[in-house]
Design brief:
about 650 residues; alpha+beta; elongated; 6-stranded antiparallel β-sheet; single chain; 5-stranded mixed β-sheet
Length: about 650
């Protein structure tokens, strides 16, 4: 539960004549929910009403609306938290399915447990039967070398209490808690680390405790029931990872022994092949998102029997409870039953029918399948909760003009905090610069997509990956132009990904709900601007269609812009570069002033003789016919292209 969760107060018995709460009282709380305001903000409407001396029934209506809004907020917080927890558990299951390095899997489990519980430190200790004590295997967030190297006698400290009882234990003040045995070694390590509140849950292999998973804070804290259950789920995955690693070790040892005993090889080879086969099949099922019945079908083939998944209510109660308590498959008549559990919750059972004689390795296979089934069920539950957001790829639908239902478009946009009735700009973005290899290029595109998504979320816009880059739909703020948005976006994304990003923007677009195909047309316009910027050598810059004016048609083609400019006004450009003169500026002003030297000298704030001398120099550089209509048009076009291709000064 969230720390700012508020328990719902008893509903007042007095209502309006119609029995319906005042709608106007709910409005401020709907706005607070929409912008995910903090809990303390929910007191403001009531306080303001009291300060204004509003009637008692109005204040009562606000109180009712406040408690309803806080309940909704708490539920939303809980759902977000549960989704994060299920996602972390599924990622851990993915690590376990492809287990190669036990230490890496355990480190990931401890890291995710610490992150989700929000504690200062998390750590995992394992029993050492050879030395008769326990030792720290993995720590995350620890700053004390003494603490990281602790070895504890059996039964000592909070971990000893957890190991003895095989139950979770929590203390909100370690040094004041007399329920467990304190020792100088443990207390010195805990004091050195600065820990106060500690939660420990057992790592179980069947009925045996093999270690303890801890989460701890350097301040007083009360761990809630859901947090204890979550840490228990991570502990179950850690125990499964250790068990899997032990099984792999045992299998390797068995293979070494089998090389010296041909008779044992013949007896056990089929069993080992089946274990390897089921490991590969279950790993593949998890990676490609298979379902519960796919797991049952795969195990049926490996065990040469019929395996079915049944709901908890339809499986035999006594053997199911025994399997749940022992953590192993149990025999029931001619069948075998393996409980499917997750974090203490009974989700169902895998039942192997008509197979009374089961090899121990095959029994372990059935148990592994039950664990994978539980993880897939958790993943399916998480996917169901996240389905609405996954279907919220609104921008892709707008670009493809698939969804033309205005009501549905507005509802989907509202879930993403976007307003399709506002004026927007469509931006096409592309990374510039060569990549060393395909992997580096893919990583750069992922960074661009991540940065664009973050920008869209903070600006109440939309983002999608497309055509090797990204496309954004951003609202146009008052006083902004499409050019402003394009240049800001180019700078922002370039800084985020540490390499140039070119951005082409469309003209502002409206009525996206009534005309969703407008977005596709605007994206095509943004792409043309993007290509034009690249053609002009302005990679890493941003521009909109409005920046190119009547040159848009020319820029749409594949032409040698640089060569055209050089052939037309190259001598003048070179002369200005060598001498530091202003012939190009004079030419621009001369054409802008309608070929009038008098108006040109006013525009440049120089003497008319200076204008005449500069124009005479231009004539010597470009030829005497430079003012003829055809030459003048080419020169003006070259001047405009030269100006557009010049670096923009921010």
């Amino acid at each position: 539960m969230s720390r700012d969760h508020v328990q719902p107060a008893e509903r007042p018995t007095t209502e309006g004549a119609t029995g319906v709460s005042d709608g106007s009282a709910e409005a401020p709380y709907l706005e607070l929910l929409a912008r995910d305001a903090p809990v303390e903000a929910y007191e403001q409407p009531v306080l303001l009403a009291r300060a204004e001396g509003q009637p008692a029934d109005r204040i009562a209506a606000l109180e009712r609306a406040k408690f309803s809004a806080l309940r909704v907020r708490s539920e939303l917080e809980g759902r977000r938290r549960r989704e994060a927890e299920l996602s972390a558990l599924f990622e851990t299951a993915h690590d376990l399915a492809g287990l190669r390095d036990l230490d890496a899997v355990l480190q990931a489990i401890v890291q995710r447990a610490r992150s989700l519980l929000g504690t200062d430190i998390a750590y995992l200790s394992l029993n050492d039967p050879a030395r008769g004590d326990t030792y720290m295997r993995v720590t995350e967030g620890s700053v004390s070398a003494r603490f990281q190297q602790l070895r504890l006698g059996m039964g000592e400290g909070l971990g000893g209490l957890v190991a003895q009882t095989a139950r979770p234990y929590v203390t909100d003040d370690y040094f004041q808690d007399a329920r467990f045995q304190h020792t100088l070694t443990i207390d010195a390590g805990v004091r050195d680390e600065g820990l106060v509140a500690i939660l420990g849950v057992p790592l179980m292999l069947g009925p045996h405790v093999i270690g303890v998973l801890f989460a701890a804070d350097r301040r007083a804290r009360v761990f809630e029931r859901e947090q204890i259950a979550l840490l228990g789920s991570f502990a179950a995955l850690a125990a499964a990872a250790i068990d899997t690693a032990n099984l792999l070790t045992e299998t390797r040892a068995a293979l070494a022994g089998l090389e010296q005993a041909n008779e044992i090889i013949r007896d056990r080879s089929a069993v080992i092949e089946r274990a390897s086969d089921v490991h590969d099949r279950l790993a593949e099922l998890v990676l490609r998102g298979g379902g519960v019945h796919d797991v049952a079908a795969a195990v049926s083939q490996v065990l040469d029997g019929t395996v079915e998944f049944t709901e908890a209510g339809t499986a035999p109660a006594e053997p199911l409870e025994a399997s749940r308590a022992e953590g192993h498959a149990v025999r029931h008549g001619g069948d075998w039953i393996a409980a499917v559990t997750a974090g203490g919750e009974l989700l169902g059972a895998l039942v192997l029918r008509g197979h009374p004689g089961l090899d121990p390795v095959d029994q372990r296979t059935l148990e592994r399948a039950a664990m994978v089934t539980s993880l897939l069920l958790l993943a399916r539950r998480s996917a169901a909760e996240a389905e609405q957001r996954v279907r919220g790829e609104l921008l892709d639908d707008l670009l493809d003009a698939r969804d033309r239902d205005p009501r549905l478009l507005r509802e989907r946009a509202a879930r993403l905090h976007a307003d399709l009735d506002a004026t927007h700009v469509v931006l096409a973005t592309r990374l510039e610069g060569p990549a060393a290899d395909a992997d580096e290029e893919a990583a750069a595109r992922r960074r661009l997509w991540s940065a664009a998504s973050h920008l869209a979320a903070t600006r109440q816009g939309l983002a999608a990956a497309r055509d090797g880059g990204t496309v954004l739909l951003l609202p146009l703020a008052a006083g902004d132009t499409a050019t402003d948005v394009a240049r800001r976006t180019a700078r922002h994304l370039g800084t985020a990904v540490h390499q140039p990003v070119t951005v082409g923007a469309s003209a502002p677009v409206t009525d996206l709900v009534a005309h969703p195909d407008t977005v596709a047309a605007a994206y095509a316009e943004g792409r043309r601007c993007l290509d034009a910027l690249h053609l002009l050598g302005r990679d890493g810059d941003g521009a909109a269609a409005e920046d190119f004016g009547f040159l848009g048609l020319l820029l749409a083609g594949e032409r040698d812009i640089g060569g055209f400019v050089d052939r037309t006004i190259g001598p003048v450009v070179a002369y200005d570069a060598r001498r530091g003169t202003e012939l190009l500026r004079t030419l621009d002003a001369y054409f802008a002033c309608g070929l009038s030297p008098a108006r040109t000298k006013d525009a440049l704030h120089v003497h008319v003789n200076t204008v005449a001398q500069r124009l005479e120099r231009v004539g010597r550089l470009l030829g005497e016919d430079w003012q003829s209509p055809a030459r003048a048009l080419e020169i003006q076009l070259a001047l405009r292209l030269h100006r557009l291709a010049a670096p923009v000064r921010h």
